[in-house]
Each structure stands twice: as C-alpha cells, then as structure tokens.
Design brief:
Radius of gyration: 22 Å
Number of strands: 9
Strand order of the largest sheet: 4-3-2-5-6-9-7
CATH class of the largest domain: Alpha Beta
Order of helices and strands: EHEHEHEHEHEHHEEEHHHH
Length: about 280
C-alpha cells in the first residue's frame, strides 16, 4: 500500500515530537565534540531525519539509526539512501549493541522519545565501555535532573549514576513551538562526556548502584533510616554522617558509603566463616 509521507503524523505510542527548526538540529549535531575518539555514531529515534541530515555531513564517521516506527523506517530508506544497510528497525531498548559494535567506540545522539529517555541513559551507562559521549534532547526536567548537583531538589538516582562515569553539561533549552506537534513541556539538550577514569570508580560498581537506589528510595529520610538493611545499628546511629539525606551526598560520598557497606559485608562474611570452623 502506498504511503503518503506528507500525511505522516507523530504517534503518541512512540512518544514522537518532530523537531522542525533546522538551526536547532544543526546545533545538536555540532554538540558532538569528541569525534576523534570514535568513528561510529548511533542516532536514536531519527523520525523523518531532521537531525539525521546533519549527522550524515560529519566526515569520516559512519551513522547508524535505530527507529521503532516502521513508517519512519520506510521514509528514511526512501529519503536517505546513505543509510541503507545502517537502519536498525527495532526498539532501541531491545537492541543488543554489542552485536553491532563489539569493541568499537560510538557516540549516542538523538531527539530522544521522552517516555523512554531515562531508560536510554541507563542503557548508555551499561554500555559505557563503548560510549565516550552522548548528546540528547530530553524533557527539560529530565535533562536538569541528570545534570543536577548535590543539594538540588532535582538531584536523584539518575544524577548520581550518570555523573559517576560522565561529565555532564546542560547545553540549551528548546521551546515547544520548535516541534510538531508541540509537546506540553519545555525541552533541554545535554551532553555527556565519559570520564577518563570511568573504569576506576573506587568501589564495587554493582553495589554502588544498589546503595544509591536504596538511599533515594527514601530520599526525605536520613541515611540511617534507608540504609538499615546494609549497616550495623551501632555504626549508623553513632556516626553523624548518617544524618545526611541522600540529595546532600556527592558522588564521592556515595563511593565512600559503598565502601563502608562492603567493608562490613566482608567482616560479616569472615565472622560467618569463622563460626563454621
């Protein structure tokens, strides 16, 4: 059946809002600043290619796009022949990036669907060995949350986890009128650059994530309440450090906290082993 592309409309099920201002698209593409670190670029949710056209102009880099909407995939195949063989017709969250890139470095960029933007960040984090930088359009509140520092009411789990491995900069705000259809919220573009020492967080990475999530699960309470399952009662009640609330802690303080938990876990394990002898 012939598809009239002039009648393509954004679909709520895909969280689509098509950027219509060329200058903003070009500005987003120009925000990739570490092109010397990779030769592959992965665009998430290209839609009808408003950002794609500028990414294709970046010399000596191979662009691949991930698009879940089959109508948009068909559109891209017709209007961007340079992408043939480099269109992944799938939900980005379901794509095994290692199958496509293995040990290759690649950047992630896009006007991200707002309904899965936080999940996109977590997936980038899980693939951080391969992803030196990310540039994305988010709902402004989400972008501000990722970039927020300690003491800010927006500071939370996503802030700590992303900032542990990436330097983050809020670049600019985009008004609803720049999209078709216009979203009901302001949008924001942020850039994430992988830290040089990202492999050396200074603690157990897996336990770090558990502790951060546990702390913010009761973000209005002091750490001595949220961390009861992880530390001895005498420790958390005698040390004033545990009177802090999670939004007051820096990434390094969460690293310290994780090491404290691991130290007592090892001590308990040693005692258990001794008791069994």
């Amino acid at each position: 059946m012939f598809l009239n592309y002039l009648e393509l409309k954004a679909k709520k099920s895909f969280g689509q809002h098509f950027l219509k201002e060329e200058s903003i698209s070009q500005r987003i593409a120009n925000s990739l600043l570490h092109l010397d670190q990779y030769t592959h670029i992965l665009e998430v949710g290209p839609g009808m290619g408003m950002l794609t056209k500028y990414l294709l102009q970046i010399p000596n880099h191979q662009l691949t796009v991930v698009e879940a909407d089959i109508d948009m995939v068909d559109y891209l195949k017709i209007h961007y022949s340079q992408l043939l063989g480099h269109i992944i017709s799938d939900d980005f969250l379901k794509v095994n990036l290692q199958e496509y890139y293995k040990d290759e470095q690649f950047a992630i960029i896009g006007n991200f669907p707002y309904n899965i933007s936080s999940q996109i960040m977590i997936k980038a984090l899980d693939n951080r060995d391969n992803v030196p930088e990310v540039v994305g359009m988010f709902q402004r509140e989400v972008g501000e949350r990722i970039a927020a520092g300690p003491g800010n009411k927006e500071y939370g789990v996503l802030s700590v986890l992303m900032q542990a491995y990436y330097d983050i900069k809020y670049l600019f705000t985009v008004k609803p009128g720049s999209f078709n259809p216009p979203p009901k919220v302001m949008s924001g573009v942020i850039a994430l650059t992988r830290k040089a020492n990202y492999r050396d967080l200074g603690c157990n990475d897996h336990l770090f994530r558990i502790i951060v999530k546990a702390a913010f699960n009761q973000r209005r309470k002091m750490l001595r309440n949220s961390l009861k399952p992880f530390l001895p009662k005498d420790i958390i009640e005698s040390d004033t450090f545990y009177e802090f609330r999670p939004e007051q802690l820096s990434v390094q303080q969460f690293v310290f906290l994780t090491n404290q938990v691991e130290k007592f876990r090892e001590k308990d394990s040693a005692l258990d082993s001794s008791d069994k002898k």
